[in-house]
TrEMBL record:
This is Small ribosomal subunit protein bS18. Residues 1-44 are annotated as: Disordered. The keyword Oxidoreductase does not apply. It comes from Edaphobacter modestus. Part of the 30S ribosomal subunit. Forms a tight heterodimer with protein bS6. Binds as a heterodimer with protein bS6 to the central domain of the 16S rRNA, where it helps stabilize the platform of the 30S subunit. It comes from the Bacteria. Belongs to the bacterial ribosomal protein bS18 family. InterPro entries: Ribosomal_bS18, Ribosomal_bS18_sf. The keyword Ribosomal protein applies. Keywords: Ribonucleoprotein, Ribosomal protein, RNA-binding, rRNA-binding. Residues 1-10 have a biased composition (Low complexity). GO terms for cellular component: cytosolic small ribosomal subunit. The gene is rpsR. GO terms for biological process: translation.
Length: 114
């Protein structure tokens, strides 16, 4: 009789991890996602961002053009990253240099006042 109780207890322990759903594990398959998102309807489509300087064929980004540079500086004074603005790598580097030069000669503020 003691052998029977130990054998039933050992089988219970082996079956406990199998009761978890397959999606709970880190490597398990994910359940299918709804097509329209949480609210239903159309899928969200993000347009590919195009570099403003490439389309307008602007080669030189001047540190004196404060109006242009302010569009690429956030409200707090940070330079906006290219993933948000859509500017290509080449122009983003030139843009950040122009912003830094403009800050050094006090055409642009380093940070906003509180």
């Amino acid at each position: 009789m003691a052998d029977e109780t130990t054998s039933t207890q050992s089988t219970e322990h082996h079956h406990a991890p199998a009761s978890r759903p397959a999606s709970a594990g880190p490597g398990g398959p994910r359940p299918p996602r709804p097509a329209g998102g949480p609210g239903g309807g159309r899928k969200f489509f993000r347009r590919k961002k195009v570099c403003k300087f490439c389309t307008e064929k602007i080669d030189a980004i001047s540190y004196r053009d404060v109006r242009l540079l302010q569009g690429f500086v956030a409200e707090r004074g940070k330079i906006v990253p290219r993933r948000l603005t859509g500017v290509c790598t080449r122009h983003q580097r030139r843009l950040s240099l122009a912003i830094k030069q403009s800050r050094n000669i006090a055409l642009l503020a380093f940070a906003t006042r509180y």
